[in-house]
Amino acid sequence: MENIKEKIDKLIEIINKASLEYYAEDNPTLTDQEYDDYYNELLRLEKEYPNLKRADSPTNKVGGEALDKFQKVNHKSPMLSFDDIFNEDEIINFDERIRKVVASPSYTVEPKMDGLSGSLIYEKGILVRAATRGDGVVGEDITQNVKTIRSVPLKLKKEIDIEVRGEIYMSKSSFEKLNYQRKQNGEKEFANPRNAAAGSVRQLDSKITASRGLDFMAYFIPNPEDYGIEFQSDSLFMLKELGFKTNYKLNKVATNYKELIDSIENIGRERESLDFPLDGAVIKVNSLDDEKKLGTTARVPRWGIAYKFPAVEVLTTLDDIVFTVGRTGRITPNAVFSPVHVDGSLISKATLHNEAYCKEKDVKIGDVVEVHKAGDVIPEIGEVKKERRTGNEKDFVMITNCPICDSKLTKKKNEADYYCPNNNCPSRKIESIIHYASRDAMNIDGLGDKIIEDLFNFNYVKKIEDIYKLQSYREELERLEGYGERSIDKLIKSIEKSKDSSLERLLFGLGIKHVGKKTAKILAKKYKTLDNLKEAKLEELTVIPDIGEIIAKSVFNYFNQDENLTLIEDLRNYGVNFKYLGKEEKESEFFTGKTFVLTGSLEIYTRDEAKEIIESLGGKTSDSVSKKTSAVIVGANPGSKYEKAKALNIKILSEEEFKEEVEKIK
Fold first, then answer.
1. Residue 293 annotated among the catalytic residues of the structure
2. Set 5, 10, 47, 112: catalytic member
3. I want to staple 330 with a disulfide (CB 3.0 to 4.6 A). Which of 195, 275, 326, 498 is the partner?
């Protein structure tokens, strides 16, 4: 608990410093993405440990405090900000949450401007006051400066009393012009358009503000019911009619999560061609009656959410480097950091591969680093931001002993990796069991990483073959927290089902060094039974296409170790299938060597069936669309992959067309 408290205190310190630099000094040292990730991590910890939440937590605020150099202004109603979301699943979750309160909601989807929120007060159609959001309750009076913004009407087209809220921003072209001028004058350039806008609107001399080329985009009326408005979309129309600049061309109305996603993706496609900065899209419940039903928390509205576009460069601070032991004994250094969003996934750990990688990157604990997904799958550390070093960073030091069993690590001359030589190392045992039960191996549903760790620690599963004895511990399992009768039934059925898996799954699951899914299938097709493979000579293994000397030696050595032979006999006694069950496969010019992506809901095949068919015909499947994709197979309600395929002009097949190509070969 003390460590959590220290982490919360540290996060508050970082966020408060960043807020001061951003709101008061207009000189940020953190990127928007870094700030958002620190803030969201603080929110998560405070939710999980409410007793540790501090009264002065920045999560109790909306923005920054009003500056003393401007007169303070009390807002008639709080200017709240929205919670952030980062991927399609969170969009779907938001829609589901709304539907628990509202039967058939509709939404507006509006571009999320990257500026600062402002409130404009009009009396009889004349602008009388303008204010910043401040902390949401108290803002700064910036009336004289806002009057210099050309897109702010000083007089409306109707003589009404009204408050209008929107975004004060600097266009990309104005930002480039301003920074060019500052560079020519030897002045410090602004980091981004938002900070340039914030610094410009807070000038004591309104002539300086006028020279900066600021803009205003209206998006909200706090009391729309006073004007007979029933929908947010009507509010946007009224703002345009009053003479305000609005995003009416990009604003959309959606009635389900699919339309929400499509609308957000449309804004994303337009983003680069626009002259104003966007960092996402805002989703609001359209009906104002529904909005009232949903209400607000002390900090955020329940009726809206902000979707943030993925950061071009995801940065975080490396808090620690920890070492893990894989199923083959390989030691991997891993970067540990506060959670960040990378391609829609929340990640708090990334591989550093090995000692050579760490030394090449010159990575140190305390560094600001860039995180990305290698091959769109595995999180890894990319660039190290050495220019942001403070001198307090700690050098990377490779360990010499196993972090689990303390065995002296070994390293072969021609390999970059260190290994734990202890075959009985607990971590190696756990990883080997996890691998055996994994989806691409024996696919034992219900045996996830955490459950396997629990079963290992409770001494129920100490090695792979123990999986098939679990049913004898049924009563003991039912007494454990989280292991209900139904979940145990499901687990035991899945274990029994795994016995009927084809040989290639078993070979991959055994964890033979250098034998991946592809190699396992090659060997299974070649030898047909495990016993045949077990008796294979090294010379014949070496000459198999795509195998080679290194893999051949690894396979040969595996089947000549007593411990492995004992495992195989135990699996035989438990009734595990040792035969290759695949059909004699034909290759097709249409599929061979090509990469396919599946999207949408398939009706003729399951997704796994479609993947197996493609692979059996010499093709490959991928989870992401790129220029290397040969074709995208589209089912019902396709998502962003379909849109990306169209944008890249990649061949698109309906499921029926895919079936026709398969049947041509049969």
1. no
2. 112
3. 326
